[in-house]
Each structure stands twice: as structure tokens, then as C-alpha cells.
From TrEMBL:
PROSITE patterns xrefs: AA_TRANSFER_CLASS_5
Organism of this sequence: Caenorhabditis remanei (Caenorhabditis vulgaris)
Domain of life: Eukaryota
Listed name of the protein: Phosphoserine aminotransferase
Keyword Transferase included in the entry's annotation: yes
First-tier enzyme category under EC: transferase
Catalysis: reaction(s): O-phospho-L-serine + 2-oxoglutarate = 3-phosphooxypyruvate + L-glutamate; 4-(phosphooxy)-L-threonine + 2-oxoglutarate = (R)-3-hydroxy-2-oxo-4-phosphooxybutanoate + L-glutamate
Domain Aminotransferase class V: 9-355
UniProt keyword list: Amino-acid biosynthesis, Aminotransferase, Pyridoxal phosphate, Serine biosynthesis, Transferase
Pathway noted in the entry: Amino-acid biosynthesis; L-serine biosynthesis; L-serine from 3-phospho-D-glycerate: step 2/3
Family as reported in the entry's similarity comment: Belongs to the class-V pyridoxal-phosphate-dependent aminotransferase family. SerC subfamily.
Signal sequence segment: none
Amino acid sequence: MALEGRKINFAAGPAKLPEEVLLKMQEEQLNFNNLGVSVIEMSHRSKEFGVLLNETISLIRELMNVPDNFEILFMQGGGTGQFAAIPLNLKGSHDHADYIVTGAWSSKAADEAQKYIKVKKVFQPSKPYVTVPDQEKWVHDEKAAYLYYCANETVHGIEFTPTAPESHNVPLVADVSSNFMARPFDFKDHGVVFGGAQKNLGAAGLTIVIVRKDLIGKEQGITPSVFSYKEMIANNSLYNTPPTGGIYTTNLVLKWIKAKGGLQAIYELNLKKSGLIYGIIDNSNGFYHCAVDKRYRSIMNVCFRIGGPSGNDELEEKFLKGAIERNMISLKGHRSVGGIRASLYNAITLEETQVLATWMNEFEKQHNTN
């Protein structure tokens, strides 16, 4: 479906929503379920909102095959809030936690966690972030409270594929903010799986946290109640007013994912989209350059330079200008790394990806003198 006047939005987040979802939101904006009010006007403690909340939880459990020994929470503060909430909730009697730093977001998570627990990095991170060091070289500690990793680094385009890191007998904590429901997920060895909804699952403001039950109740005494997993579970995520509009939006996105065939179908489409763009990069004789180790290339965030490994500012500006003229927006790379970044989240269609591919081929033909 293509709505007139809409841009092809390759933003890293807040990101594109499926147009079917936006149309449903528009239809129900003034009168949700014939109740005579918008969903964002409803009391979060009403029976009607309770039905919506519990249905959304059930859809997450169904689509991700969340095991019964995990609770699903709706929280606020974004993924960044969980950088603090995780050590606050999981420290228990442990002295430290292990962190895998593979990019900007895992680095920020480790920095924040140091306020609440001693942090040990399983390897010394090195910039630029382009790969994940071999796990045989990691220094693990089985006495750690948990082992933290970012499943997909949005800024640098690095993704753990196809499996999670080895846990070494401690709970894995996964930040899945930018590949949430982009592929099937294996909860084996995981203790906490969390992510903001604004990339693949809805609107900014909602954070989904999936917590293994045996880890609940270990929070530090200084843990704010709004960040306490125990408190949130006891109140079915209604300790305070939740982001009701965000939960509603995610509910619609989950139904859209289910209608598309679930996570396996979504994953296969994401492989096609990313494969199309990476194929152009790899066959450009160096005109397009992706520095990320092919084993860890993100299928969500394709990061590349134009005109060589360091990029050519003039060419990249021309490329971005031409993309805008062709109805494509938000392709500029993160300010910390530059270049181009195409975020191919679930709502981006294969047809929209093909528009980008066509422009890349055209631009290379115009400017590649190698």
C-alpha cells in the first residue's frame, strides 16, 4: 500500500509505521471500539483498556514464542532507561556484571551501569566498531550478575547473527531495540530482553521488557518504583499511567506482523531487503563501501560510505540530495560516523527498498570512475 504524499522513510527511529496501521489509527482516533472516546483519552484502569493491554501482552508472547517463565512488562524511559534499570534490578548479591561492547549503544549501557554495579568488559572494545571479536578470546566470569549485549547496533550496523553470544552460565541481557521482532528469537540462556518500540513495534514512549521470573525481586534498595520489575509485575504494568497510546499502536503493529505470517515471514523479507542493498555495495568495485564484517552485518541498519572507505563528502551530499528528490528521506548516517544509513525496519517494503536500490545503481553509473 502506498498513500499519496508520503515519503519513503529510512529513519533509524522513530521509524516508519505500516500504512495499514496508520489508517486503522486514523479510523479509530475519535471513537475507539465504539466507546465514544479516543484510546488516548481512556482511563488506563478501565476494563476496556485492560482488555487491550492483556491482548497486547498475549500477542507478544505468541509471536515471539515467549516461554511461560518470563513476564512481559510495559515500561517508560526508553531503552536508555533500562541501562540503569537492569543493574538496579539484577545486581542482587553480585559484585559485578559482564558487558559486550560492540558499538555506541552497548558502550552507553556499560557507562550507565557503572553507576549501580561494577562493570567488566569481556574484551577491550576498539574503534571503529566493525566486528565482534571471536568469543574464544572473551574473558568471562561465571560470578557475574549477567552478561549484557546489544543484539543490533543501530549506529554502526552490527548485528549478532545468527545466534546470541554464549552465556557462560550467567543470564544474558539483550537490548533488541532495533531488531525487535525482525527475526525469530531464541530465549535460551536469556534473563532479560528489552527494547524501545519506536523502530519496529510502534511509537516512541513505550519500552517492552521481558524478564525471567527467577530474576525478579533482586532489586537494589535505591531502585525507583517505576523501574522496579517486581513492582511493575505486581501491578500488571499499571503502577503508574503507562503510555496508553503507545500500547495501542504496538497492538496494531503486532496484529499486522501476525497477518504478514509472523516472524519467520518477516525475517525472510528482511533478508531480501538487506541482501538487495548489500549486493549493490559488494558489486560496486569499492564505490560503495561497508566496513562491517560480513558475518555481523545488520539486516536492519545498512551503513556505508560512498567513494571509498573514508567516504567522499561531496558525493554523499549529492546522493542524499538526489534521494530526497526521489521521495526518500533520513538516509544520512549517524552524526558520529557519517556516511549513509538505510534503516530497513519491518514496515519498509521490498518495493521501497527497490527504489533505493535503483537510485544506488543510477548514482554509481553516473559517478563511479574506477
